[in-house]
Design brief:
Layout lengths: L1 H20 L13 H4 L1 E11 L22 E4 L4 E5 L5 E9 L6 E6 L13 E8 L3 E9 L4 E10 L1
Antiparallel strand pairs: 1-2, 1-8, 2-3, 3-4, 4-5, 5-6, 6-7, 7-8
Length: 159
């Protein structure tokens, strides 16, 4: 349990610190990213890894291993409420937002338990929006690999 908390804290720290420390930015196709474009129901159609071996990350979002997110359904309403539903039956309510002001745009969410208000949740997760169009969104979750930047990439298809 302590190891999972430590890993989560490291991932969150990397997700917050690395983008702000970057001296160069890579070109992305997120100029058309908007809250309305990301709203909807999405299925994770593919998970890939950049700079990391697949089994090196045991858990993401304090929910499950990355492979458990294959074919998961993300319901993102225009109000910011949403859910992540894994194929094993786990459903996690979330409150999400999109930071379009930074480049690349950032998809952020907080896990919200029933009866809990999102404003009272102080921790969350952030992913770069690599690309987004009417039918596909690609999110890149930064992972700390001992000082180098690596990513778990979630390719999502509109349902």
């Amino acid at each position: 349990m302590k190891k999972a908390i430590t890993m989560t804290a490291m991932i969150l720290a990397v997700a917050i610190v690395l983008p702000s420390c970057s001296s160069t930015k890579t070109a992305t196709t997120t100029s058309n990213v908007s809250h309305g474009r990301v709203s909807g129901t999405w299925m994770v159609s593919n998970i890939s890894y950049e700079g990391i071996i697949e089994n090196n990350v045991q858990t993401i979002f304090d929910l499950a291993p990355p492979t458990a997110f294959q074919n998961s359904t993300w319901t993102l309403t225009g109000s910011g409420n949403g859910t992540i539903a894994l194929t094993n039956g786990t459903v996690q309510p979330i409150y999400w937002s999109l930071n379009e002001a930074q480049s690349p745009a950032s998809f952020q969410f907080k896990k919200v338990n029933p009866g809990e208000k999102a404003r009272n949740v102080t921790t969350g997760y952030s992913m770069d929006v690599s690309s987004a169009d009417a039918n596909n969104v690609v999110l890149r979750l930064p992972v700390d690999t001992g000082g180098t930047r690596a990513y778990i990439i979630l390719n999502m298809t509109k349902k």
